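Give me the fold.
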Amino acid sequence: MTDITPSGASLLVQDARTQKRNRAEARFKMYGLAAIAVGLLMLVILLTTIISRGTGAFQQTYVTLEVPLLEAKLDKKGNRDLADIKKVSTFGYAPLMKAAFEEKIAAARIETSLKSKQMAALLSKDAAATLRNFVLQDVDVIGQTIEFEFLTNSRVDGYLKGRVTRDSIANDKSINAAQLDLVDALIADGSLRKRFNLEFITGADASDQRPEAAGMGVAMIGSFFMMLVVLALALPIGVAASIYLEEFAPKNWITDIIEVNISNLAAVPSIVFGILGLAVFINYMHLPNSAPLVGGLVLTLMTLPTIIISTRASLKSVPPSIRDAALGVGASKMQSVFHHVLPLAAPGILTGTIIGLAQALGETAPLLLIGMVGFIASNPPDAITSGLMDPNSAMPAQIYEWAKRADPAFYERAWGGIIILLVFLITMNAIAVLLRRRFERRW
Protein backbone atom coordinates (compact mmCIF):
# COMPACT_ATOMS: atom_id res chain seq x y z
CA MET A 1 0.00 0.00 0.00
CA THR A 2 1.37 3.40 -0.96
CA ASP A 3 1.57 6.09 1.73
CA ILE A 4 0.06 9.34 0.30
CA THR A 5 1.39 11.55 3.10
CA PRO A 6 4.72 13.28 2.53
CA SER A 7 7.73 11.73 4.15
CA GLY A 8 7.88 12.61 7.85
CA ALA A 9 4.44 14.32 7.79
CA SER A 10 1.54 13.44 10.08
CA LEU A 11 -2.20 13.51 9.40
CA LEU A 12 -2.70 15.09 12.81
CA VAL A 13 -0.50 18.09 12.03
CA GLN A 14 -1.62 20.71 9.51
CA ASP A 15 0.91 21.82 6.95
CA ALA A 16 1.46 25.50 6.08
CA ARG A 17 -0.87 25.43 3.08
CA THR A 18 -3.76 23.95 5.06
CA GLN A 19 -3.24 26.44 7.86
CA LYS A 20 -3.35 29.31 5.38
CA ARG A 21 -6.54 27.99 3.84
CA ASN A 22 -8.17 27.56 7.24
CA ARG A 23 -7.19 31.09 8.25
CA ALA A 24 -8.73 32.44 5.04
CA GLU A 25 -11.93 30.53 5.78
CA ALA A 26 -12.02 31.88 9.36
CA ARG A 27 -11.54 35.43 8.06
CA PHE A 28 -14.35 34.97 5.56
CA LYS A 29 -16.70 33.80 8.33
CA MET A 30 -15.64 36.76 10.44
CA TYR A 31 -16.35 39.16 7.57
CA GLY A 32 -19.79 37.60 7.12
CA LEU A 33 -20.60 37.88 10.80
CA ALA A 34 -19.36 41.47 10.82
CA ALA A 35 -21.56 42.30 7.82
CA ILE A 36 -24.59 40.78 9.55
CA ALA A 37 -23.79 42.67 12.76
CA VAL A 38 -23.48 45.98 10.88
CA GLY A 39 -26.75 45.32 9.07
CA LEU A 40 -28.56 44.52 12.32
CA LEU A 41 -27.03 47.59 13.95
CA MET A 42 -28.27 49.83 11.12
CA LEU A 43 -31.72 48.25 11.40
CA VAL A 44 -31.80 48.88 15.15
CA ILE A 45 -30.69 52.49 14.64
CA LEU A 46 -33.34 52.99 11.96
CA LEU A 47 -36.18 51.52 14.01
CA THR A 48 -35.06 53.34 17.15
CA THR A 49 -34.97 56.66 15.31
CA ILE A 50 -38.38 56.15 13.73
CA ILE A 51 -40.03 55.04 16.97
CA SER A 52 -38.41 57.71 19.15
CA ARG A 53 -39.33 60.53 16.78
CA GLY A 54 -42.71 59.24 15.63
CA THR A 55 -44.45 58.02 18.78
CA GLY A 56 -45.09 61.62 19.85
CA ALA A 57 -47.56 61.97 16.97
CA PHE A 58 -49.82 59.42 18.65
CA GLN A 59 -50.12 61.64 21.72
CA GLN A 60 -51.53 65.14 21.77
CA THR A 61 -52.08 67.82 24.40
CA TYR A 62 -55.65 68.69 25.34
CA VAL A 63 -57.14 71.28 27.69
CA THR A 64 -60.48 70.74 29.43
CA LEU A 65 -62.95 73.63 29.38
CA GLU A 66 -66.60 74.00 30.32
CA VAL A 67 -68.16 76.01 27.52
CA PRO A 68 -71.59 77.66 27.93
CA LEU A 69 -73.39 77.33 24.59
CA LEU A 70 -75.29 80.59 24.85
CA GLU A 71 -78.51 80.78 22.90
CA ALA A 72 -78.03 84.51 22.37
CA LYS A 73 -74.86 83.79 20.40
CA LEU A 74 -75.72 80.59 18.53
CA ASP A 75 -79.48 80.72 17.96
CA LYS A 76 -80.72 84.28 18.19
CA LYS A 77 -84.19 83.39 16.89
CA GLY A 78 -84.51 80.53 19.36
CA ASN A 79 -86.24 78.23 16.86
CA ARG A 80 -83.44 75.63 16.65
CA ASP A 81 -83.48 75.86 12.88
CA LEU A 82 -80.33 74.14 11.58
CA ALA A 83 -80.11 76.46 8.57
CA ASP A 84 -80.00 79.52 10.84
CA ILE A 85 -77.51 77.94 13.24
CA LYS A 86 -75.18 77.08 10.34
CA LYS A 87 -74.93 80.79 9.58
CA VAL A 88 -72.88 81.24 12.76
CA SER A 89 -69.29 80.78 11.68
CA THR A 90 -66.35 79.74 13.83
CA PHE A 91 -65.80 83.42 14.64
CA GLY A 92 -69.09 83.34 16.52
CA TYR A 93 -67.86 80.48 18.70
CA ALA A 94 -64.54 82.12 19.59
CA PRO A 95 -65.99 84.46 22.28
CA LEU A 96 -67.58 81.45 24.01
CA MET A 97 -64.22 79.74 24.22
CA LYS A 98 -62.49 82.88 25.49
CA ALA A 99 -65.10 83.22 28.23
CA ALA A 100 -64.70 79.55 29.12
CA PHE A 101 -60.94 79.96 29.39
CA GLU A 102 -61.30 82.98 31.67
CA GLU A 103 -63.75 81.06 33.85
CA LYS A 104 -61.31 78.14 34.06
CA ILE A 105 -58.48 80.44 35.20
CA ALA A 106 -60.71 82.09 37.78
CA ALA A 107 -62.03 78.78 39.12
CA ALA A 108 -58.51 77.38 39.46
CA ARG A 109 -57.35 80.63 41.14
CA ILE A 110 -54.45 80.98 38.74
CA GLU A 111 -52.85 84.41 38.67
CA THR A 112 -51.78 85.62 35.25
CA SER A 113 -51.26 88.90 33.46
CA LEU A 114 -52.44 87.50 30.14
CA LYS A 115 -55.45 88.94 28.38
CA SER A 116 -58.31 86.69 27.31
CA LYS A 117 -57.10 86.74 23.69
CA GLN A 118 -53.64 85.55 24.75
CA MET A 119 -55.18 82.81 26.88
CA ALA A 120 -57.36 81.62 24.00
CA ALA A 121 -54.29 81.64 21.75
CA LEU A 122 -53.11 78.53 23.62
CA LEU A 123 -55.93 76.63 21.94
CA SER A 124 -55.65 75.14 18.51
CA LYS A 125 -57.24 77.09 15.68
CA ASP A 126 -59.17 73.90 15.05
CA ALA A 127 -60.94 74.18 18.43
CA ALA A 128 -63.66 76.56 17.23
CA ALA A 129 -64.48 74.26 14.30
CA THR A 130 -64.65 71.30 16.69
CA LEU A 131 -67.14 73.16 18.88
CA ARG A 132 -69.22 74.25 15.89
CA ASN A 133 -69.41 70.70 14.48
CA PHE A 134 -70.54 69.42 17.86
CA VAL A 135 -73.38 71.94 17.98
CA LEU A 136 -74.46 71.24 14.39
CA GLN A 137 -74.72 67.51 15.14
CA ASP A 138 -77.21 68.15 17.96
CA VAL A 139 -78.71 71.62 18.12
CA ASP A 140 -80.57 70.75 21.32
CA VAL A 141 -77.35 71.24 23.31
CA ILE A 142 -77.66 75.00 22.80
CA GLY A 143 -78.34 76.64 26.12
CA GLN A 144 -76.36 74.06 28.09
CA THR A 145 -72.82 74.15 29.53
CA ILE A 146 -70.80 71.28 28.09
CA GLU A 147 -67.34 70.06 29.08
CA PHE A 148 -64.95 69.76 26.13
CA GLU A 149 -61.40 68.63 25.56
CA PHE A 150 -59.84 70.99 23.04
CA LEU A 151 -56.56 70.60 21.22
CA THR A 152 -53.87 73.05 22.25
CA ASN A 153 -51.66 74.68 19.66
CA SER A 154 -48.47 73.03 18.43
CA ARG A 155 -46.22 75.17 20.65
CA VAL A 156 -47.98 74.06 23.84
CA ASP A 157 -47.89 70.46 22.66
CA GLY A 158 -44.21 70.83 21.83
CA TYR A 159 -43.58 72.26 25.30
CA LEU A 160 -45.01 69.16 26.97
CA LYS A 161 -43.04 66.91 24.63
CA GLY A 162 -39.74 68.76 25.14
CA ARG A 163 -39.63 70.07 21.60
CA VAL A 164 -40.22 73.66 22.78
CA THR A 165 -38.24 75.13 25.69
CA ARG A 166 -38.16 78.49 27.40
CA ASP A 167 -34.83 79.20 25.74
CA SER A 168 -36.10 78.34 22.26
CA ILE A 169 -39.08 80.75 22.39
CA ALA A 170 -36.92 83.87 22.55
CA ASN A 171 -37.63 84.64 18.88
CA ASP A 172 -40.96 82.82 18.66
CA LYS A 173 -43.96 85.09 18.16
CA SER A 174 -46.44 82.25 18.65
CA ILE A 175 -45.87 81.85 22.39
CA ASN A 176 -44.16 83.65 25.27
CA ALA A 177 -42.93 82.91 28.79
CA ALA A 178 -46.13 84.16 30.47
CA GLN A 179 -48.18 81.73 28.41
CA LEU A 180 -45.84 78.89 29.39
CA ASP A 181 -46.34 79.89 33.04
CA LEU A 182 -50.07 79.52 32.49
CA VAL A 183 -49.50 76.14 30.85
CA ASP A 184 -47.53 74.96 33.90
CA ALA A 185 -50.34 76.14 36.18
CA LEU A 186 -52.97 74.31 34.11
CA ILE A 187 -50.86 71.14 34.21
CA ALA A 188 -50.68 71.36 37.99
CA ASP A 189 -54.45 71.90 38.09
CA GLY A 190 -55.03 68.79 35.95
CA SER A 191 -56.84 70.71 33.23
CA LEU A 192 -54.10 70.30 30.63
CA ARG A 193 -52.63 66.91 29.80
CA LYS A 194 -51.42 64.60 27.07
CA ARG A 195 -53.45 61.63 25.93
CA PHE A 196 -53.70 59.20 23.02
CA ASN A 197 -54.45 61.01 19.78
CA LEU A 198 -56.96 58.88 17.88
CA GLU A 199 -57.55 61.74 15.44
CA PHE A 200 -54.03 61.26 14.08
CA ILE A 201 -55.08 57.83 12.79
CA THR A 202 -58.61 58.73 11.70
CA GLY A 203 -58.36 62.43 10.78
CA ALA A 204 -57.48 64.39 7.66
CA ASP A 205 -54.62 66.67 6.73
CA ALA A 206 -54.67 70.20 8.12
CA SER A 207 -53.40 73.62 7.09
CA ASP A 208 -50.08 75.09 8.15
CA GLN A 209 -51.90 77.09 10.87
CA ARG A 210 -53.08 73.99 12.77
CA PRO A 211 -50.57 71.15 12.47
CA GLU A 212 -51.78 69.64 15.74
CA ALA A 213 -55.05 68.67 13.99
CA ALA A 214 -53.46 66.83 11.05
CA GLY A 215 -54.11 63.12 10.66
CA MET A 216 -53.48 60.16 8.34
CA GLY A 217 -57.03 58.80 8.07
CA VAL A 218 -57.99 60.27 4.70
CA ALA A 219 -54.60 59.36 3.20
CA MET A 220 -55.10 55.78 4.45
CA ILE A 221 -58.46 55.69 2.64
CA GLY A 222 -56.78 56.94 -0.53
CA SER A 223 -54.12 54.23 -0.29
CA PHE A 224 -56.85 51.62 0.32
CA PHE A 225 -58.73 52.52 -2.88
CA MET A 226 -55.48 52.58 -4.86
CA MET A 227 -54.62 49.09 -3.63
CA LEU A 228 -58.09 47.90 -4.68
CA VAL A 229 -57.38 49.09 -8.23
CA VAL A 230 -53.93 47.49 -8.24
CA LEU A 231 -55.25 44.19 -6.92
CA ALA A 232 -58.19 44.11 -9.35
CA LEU A 233 -55.98 44.78 -12.39
CA ALA A 234 -52.45 43.61 -11.67
CA LEU A 235 -53.31 40.15 -10.30
CA PRO A 236 -55.44 38.80 -13.18
CA ILE A 237 -53.42 40.51 -15.91
CA GLY A 238 -50.07 39.49 -14.40
CA VAL A 239 -51.09 35.87 -13.77
CA ALA A 240 -52.67 35.51 -17.22
CA ALA A 241 -49.57 36.93 -18.93
CA SER A 242 -47.30 34.66 -16.88
CA ILE A 243 -49.32 31.52 -17.70
CA TYR A 244 -49.26 32.30 -21.39
CA LEU A 245 -45.55 33.09 -21.53
CA GLU A 246 -44.54 30.10 -19.41
CA GLU A 247 -46.93 27.40 -20.62
CA PHE A 248 -48.35 28.28 -24.04
CA ALA A 249 -46.17 30.85 -25.87
CA PRO A 250 -43.80 29.49 -28.53
CA LYS A 251 -40.12 29.96 -27.83
CA ASN A 252 -38.98 32.39 -30.53
CA TRP A 253 -37.37 35.79 -30.83
CA ILE A 254 -40.67 37.62 -30.20
CA THR A 255 -41.21 36.01 -26.79
CA ASP A 256 -37.51 36.56 -26.03
CA ILE A 257 -37.96 40.29 -26.63
CA ILE A 258 -41.10 40.32 -24.45
CA GLU A 259 -39.30 38.55 -21.59
CA VAL A 260 -36.31 40.90 -21.80
CA ASN A 261 -38.59 43.93 -21.73
CA ILE A 262 -40.52 42.62 -18.73
CA SER A 263 -37.26 42.13 -16.85
CA ASN A 264 -36.14 45.63 -17.81
CA LEU A 265 -39.46 47.17 -16.75
CA ALA A 266 -39.01 45.70 -13.27
CA ALA A 267 -35.85 47.82 -12.92
CA VAL A 268 -37.28 51.08 -14.34
CA PRO A 269 -37.40 53.92 -11.76
CA SER A 270 -40.90 54.47 -10.43
CA ILE A 271 -40.92 58.13 -11.43
CA VAL A 272 -40.92 57.03 -15.09
CA PHE A 273 -44.25 55.30 -14.51
CA GLY A 274 -45.48 58.52 -12.93
CA ILE A 275 -44.58 60.46 -16.08
CA LEU A 276 -46.33 57.81 -18.18
CA GLY A 277 -49.45 58.02 -16.02
CA LEU A 278 -49.47 61.81 -16.22
CA ALA A 279 -49.17 61.74 -20.01
CA VAL A 280 -51.64 58.92 -20.73
CA PHE A 281 -54.26 58.86 -17.97
CA ILE A 282 -54.51 62.58 -17.18
CA ASN A 283 -53.38 64.52 -20.28
CA TYR A 284 -54.69 62.09 -22.93
CA MET A 285 -57.59 60.18 -21.27
CA HIS A 286 -58.58 63.21 -19.12
CA LEU A 287 -59.14 61.20 -15.95
CA PRO A 288 -59.52 63.34 -12.80
CA ASN A 289 -56.31 64.67 -11.33
CA SER A 290 -55.28 63.38 -7.88
CA ALA A 291 -57.85 60.54 -8.02
CA PRO A 292 -57.02 57.16 -6.43
CA LEU A 293 -58.14 55.53 -9.69
CA VAL A 294 -55.30 57.22 -11.57
CA GLY A 295 -52.85 56.40 -8.79
CA GLY A 296 -53.98 52.78 -8.88
CA LEU A 297 -53.53 52.58 -12.66
CA VAL A 298 -50.00 54.01 -12.41
CA LEU A 299 -49.08 51.60 -9.61
CA THR A 300 -50.58 48.73 -11.60
CA LEU A 301 -48.17 49.43 -14.45
CA MET A 302 -45.32 49.50 -11.98
CA THR A 303 -46.37 46.31 -10.18
CA LEU A 304 -47.12 44.15 -13.21
CA PRO A 305 -43.48 43.20 -13.98
CA THR A 306 -42.93 42.10 -10.37
CA ILE A 307 -46.05 39.90 -10.39
CA ILE A 308 -45.22 38.42 -13.79
CA ILE A 309 -41.66 37.52 -12.78
CA SER A 310 -42.68 35.99 -9.44
CA THR A 311 -45.59 34.08 -11.04
CA ARG A 312 -43.36 32.62 -13.75
CA ALA A 313 -40.86 31.54 -11.12
CA SER A 314 -43.67 29.81 -9.20
CA LEU A 315 -44.87 28.03 -12.35
CA LYS A 316 -41.34 26.88 -13.13
CA SER A 317 -41.00 25.44 -9.63
CA VAL A 318 -43.77 22.90 -10.31
CA PRO A 319 -42.04 19.65 -11.48
CA PRO A 320 -42.55 18.70 -15.15
CA SER A 321 -43.76 15.29 -13.97
CA ILE A 322 -47.02 16.94 -12.82
CA ARG A 323 -47.68 18.18 -16.33
CA ASP A 324 -46.65 14.87 -17.92
CA ALA A 325 -48.87 12.87 -15.57
CA ALA A 326 -51.88 15.06 -16.34
CA LEU A 327 -51.30 14.83 -20.07
CA GLY A 328 -50.73 11.08 -19.74
CA VAL A 329 -54.20 10.45 -18.35
CA GLY A 330 -55.86 12.37 -21.17
CA ALA A 331 -56.01 15.95 -19.85
CA SER A 332 -55.64 18.77 -22.33
CA LYS A 333 -52.85 21.31 -22.07
CA MET A 334 -55.20 23.87 -20.54
CA GLN A 335 -56.60 21.35 -18.07
CA SER A 336 -53.13 20.31 -16.95
CA VAL A 337 -52.20 23.95 -16.34
CA PHE A 338 -55.37 25.18 -14.63
CA HIS A 339 -56.27 21.99 -12.72
CA HIS A 340 -52.81 20.87 -11.62
CA VAL A 341 -49.97 23.35 -12.19
CA LEU A 342 -51.72 26.59 -11.17
CA PRO A 343 -53.06 25.31 -7.80
CA LEU A 344 -49.59 24.05 -6.88
CA ALA A 345 -48.02 27.39 -7.88
CA ALA A 346 -50.68 29.45 -6.06
CA PRO A 347 -48.66 30.01 -2.83
CA GLY A 348 -45.78 31.55 -4.76
CA ILE A 349 -48.18 33.62 -6.86
CA LEU A 350 -49.93 34.98 -3.77
CA THR A 351 -46.59 35.76 -2.13
CA GLY A 352 -45.33 37.64 -5.18
CA THR A 353 -48.61 39.55 -5.47
CA ILE A 354 -48.59 40.66 -1.83
CA ILE A 355 -44.95 41.72 -2.04
CA GLY A 356 -45.74 43.67 -5.22
CA LEU A 357 -48.68 45.37 -3.48
CA ALA A 358 -46.45 46.22 -0.52
CA GLN A 359 -43.92 47.77 -2.86
CA ALA A 360 -46.65 49.81 -4.57
CA LEU A 361 -48.05 50.95 -1.21
CA GLY A 362 -44.75 52.61 -0.32
CA GLU A 363 -44.17 54.41 -3.62
CA THR A 364 -44.13 58.20 -3.58
CA ALA A 365 -42.57 59.54 -6.79
CA PRO A 366 -45.30 58.49 -9.26
CA LEU A 367 -48.01 59.84 -6.95
CA LEU A 368 -46.32 63.23 -6.75
CA LEU A 369 -46.47 63.58 -10.52
CA ILE A 370 -50.22 62.96 -10.69
CA GLY A 371 -50.92 65.42 -7.87
CA MET A 372 -51.79 63.13 -4.96
CA VAL A 373 -50.09 65.32 -2.37
CA GLY A 374 -51.55 66.68 0.81
CA PHE A 375 -55.15 67.11 -0.31
CA ILE A 376 -57.20 68.34 2.64
CA ALA A 377 -60.50 66.52 3.07
CA SER A 378 -62.73 66.14 6.08
CA ASN A 379 -65.19 63.40 5.19
CA PRO A 380 -64.65 59.80 4.01
CA PRO A 381 -66.14 58.84 0.62
CA ASP A 382 -69.77 57.73 0.72
CA ALA A 383 -69.42 55.25 -2.15
CA ILE A 384 -66.80 53.27 -4.05
CA THR A 385 -67.19 55.56 -7.07
CA SER A 386 -66.44 58.70 -5.08
CA GLY A 387 -63.59 56.90 -3.31
CA LEU A 388 -62.00 56.15 -6.66
CA MET A 389 -62.76 59.40 -8.50
CA ASP A 390 -62.62 62.14 -5.84
CA PRO A 391 -59.25 63.84 -5.24
CA ASN A 392 -57.33 62.34 -2.35
CA SER A 393 -53.85 61.66 -1.06
CA ALA A 394 -51.91 58.53 -0.15
CA MET A 395 -49.83 57.62 2.87
CA PRO A 396 -46.34 58.02 1.34
CA ALA A 397 -47.32 61.24 -0.43
CA GLN A 398 -48.81 62.60 2.80
CA ILE A 399 -45.61 61.78 4.69
CA TYR A 400 -43.57 63.59 2.03
CA GLU A 401 -45.87 66.61 2.24
CA TRP A 402 -45.53 66.82 6.02
CA ALA A 403 -41.75 66.36 5.95
CA LYS A 404 -41.23 69.46 3.81
CA ARG A 405 -43.37 71.81 5.95
CA ALA A 406 -41.74 74.25 8.29
CA ASP A 407 -43.54 73.56 11.58
CA PRO A 408 -41.76 70.91 13.69
CA ALA A 409 -45.16 69.43 14.56
CA PHE A 410 -45.58 68.36 10.93
CA TYR A 411 -42.12 66.81 11.01
CA GLU A 412 -43.18 64.78 14.05
CA ARG A 413 -46.27 63.66 12.17
CA ALA A 414 -44.15 62.59 9.23
CA TRP A 415 -42.29 60.17 11.52
CA GLY A 416 -45.62 59.01 12.95
CA GLY A 417 -46.91 58.42 9.42
CA ILE A 418 -43.83 56.32 8.70
CA ILE A 419 -44.71 54.12 11.69
CA ILE A 420 -48.24 53.59 10.32
CA LEU A 421 -46.89 52.84 6.85
CA LEU A 422 -44.35 50.37 8.27
CA VAL A 423 -47.12 48.60 10.18
CA PHE A 424 -48.98 48.09 6.90
CA LEU A 425 -45.86 46.91 5.06
CA ILE A 426 -44.78 44.52 7.83
CA THR A 427 -48.31 43.12 8.02
CA MET A 428 -48.45 42.51 4.27
CA ASN A 429 -45.04 40.84 4.22
CA ALA A 430 -45.97 38.71 7.26
CA ILE A 431 -49.11 37.55 5.44
CA ALA A 432 -46.96 36.63 2.43
CA VAL A 433 -44.60 34.57 4.61
CA LEU A 434 -47.49 32.82 6.38
CA LEU A 435 -49.18 31.94 3.10
CA ARG A 436 -45.96 30.52 1.70
CA ARG A 437 -45.30 28.45 4.81
CA ARG A 438 -48.91 27.26 4.97
CA PHE A 439 -49.31 26.13 1.37
CA GLU A 440 -45.74 25.52 0.22
CA ARG A 441 -45.02 22.09 -1.25
CA ARG A 442 -41.68 20.34 -0.89
CA TRP A 443 -40.62 18.51 -4.03
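The mean pLDDT is 86.
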